[in-house]
Amino acid sequence: MSALIQIKATLEDLYNGRTVKIAITRKTIVGDVSRCEDCDGSGVQVEMRQIGPGMVQQLQRHCAECGGQGYSARTKKERKVLEVRVEKGMKDNQKITFRGMSDELPNMESGDVNFVVQEQEHELFQRKGADLLIVKTLSLNQALTGFQWKLVHLDGRDFIIKSRPGEIIKPESGGTKPFVKVLKDEGMPSYGNPFVRGDLYVLFRVRFPNDGDLSNDVIKVLRNLLPDPAMEIDDAEEIEEVHLDQTDVKCFGKGGASAQRDAYDSDEEQAGESVQCHQS
C-alpha cells in the first residue's frame, strides 16, 4: 500500500532546488512469514449458511486472523530518515517517489512513499508554467518621467529595473490590455532541464492622483509643462457649462423611456443594475 505525504515548497525552493530530511515510521517484518492456518493461505474464510429447505448460501469474508493477507508475520515499527530532493522547476502537486519504502506486508511487495509538492503562494512573484509575473504599480510621475526599482530575484540576485529614456508607461495598451513588459530567460528553470528558463513578465499599473491631491499651483505647472493643455474657447461665457459624471460602459444603450419600462418588467437584479446606470 502506497503512502502520500504533502511537502510544502516555497517558490524559492522550486527555483533553486532544496533537499529536505523527513522522518517516516513504517512497519517491517521480523522473522519468518507463516501461512495462516485459519484460511489456509487464501486470505478468505468461507461460511455456509442454510437459508431454507435444501437451500444453502455461501459467504466469503476476509480472514480475521491474517487480515485477508493469507500469511502472517511479526512486525515492528522502524523509523527512517529520507532525503527528499525538491528539484528545480518542479510544479504544484508533482510527486517525489521512494520505491518500496511503505509498510512491509507478508508475501507482498512493499508500496511506495510519495511526497506531493504543495507550492506556496509568493508575496511578489506569480507563476504560470515556467514563466513568472510581477505586478508593479507606478505613480503618474514615474510613468511619465521614468522609474527604477531594485528587484531581489528568487535566487538572491539583485536587479535594477528601469525604464528607457523617454519611455512612457501607459495605464493600458490596445484598448483594454494591460501594459506588460518582459525580461527574457529570467523565469523559472524547466524541470529536467534547469538551464532552459522561462521569462519574467512585469505588468504595470499606473496610480493616478485622487481628486484634491493636486494643488492649484501644481496644476498650473503641469498645464504649462505637459503637451496638449485644455483648449481655450472664445465664446465660453455664452455657452452653458456642464460636468460629466462617472459611469460604466455597460450602461451604454440602457437609457431612455423604453429602458425604464424594461427595468420595471425585469427581475430585481436587472432593475437594480438599470437604476445604478441612471444614477451614475
Keywords:
280 residues, three-stranded mixed β-sheet, HSP40/DNAj peptide-binding domain, 15 strands, alpha+beta, 2 domains, four-stranded mixed β-sheet
Write structural notes for this entry.
By secondary structure, this protein is α+β, with helices and mostly antiparallel strands. The chain has 2 domains: 3-119, Urease metallochaperone UreE, N-terminal domain (HSP40/DNAj peptide-binding domain), CATH 2.60.260; 126-206, Urease metallochaperone UreE, N-terminal domain (HSP40/DNAj peptide-binding domain), CATH 2.60.260. The protein is built from 5 helices and 15 strands. The protein has helices at residues 11-16, 140-145, 216-225, 257-265, 268-279, and strands spanning 3-9, 18-35, 44-52, 55-62, 71-86, 95-98, 113-119, 126-128, 131-139, 148-152, 158-162, 179-183, 189-190, 193-197, 200-207. Strands 8-9-15-12 form a 4-stranded mixed β-sheet. A hairpin with a 2-residue loop joins strand 3 (44-52) and strand 4. Helix 4 runs antiparallel to helix 5 (268-279). The longest helix has 12 residues, at 268-279. The chain starts with a strand and ends with a helix. The model has no long low-confidence stretch (mean pLDDT 83).
The coarse silhouette is elongated
Q: In angstroms, what is the radius of gyration?
A: 35 Å
N-C termini distance: 63 Å
Structural domains: how many? 2
User: What's the level 1 CATH class of the largest domain?
Assistant: Mainly Beta
Order of helices and strands: EHEEEEEEEEHEEEEEEHHH
Spatial sequence of strands, sheet with the most strands = 8-9-15-12
Give the biggest sheet: 4 strands, mixed
Low-pLDDT stretches are none
By CATH, the superfamily of the largest domain comes out as Urease metallochaperone UreE, N-terminal domain
What's the CATH architecture name of the largest domain?
Answer: Sandwich
Q: Based on DSSP secondary structure assignment, what is the total number of beta strands?
A: 15
β content, as a range? 35-45%
Structural classification: alpha+beta
User: Mean pLDDT, nearest integer?
Assistant: 83
The helix fraction, in percent, is: 10-25%
- CATH fold type of the largest domain: HSP40/DNAj peptide-binding domain
Secondary structure tally, helices:
5
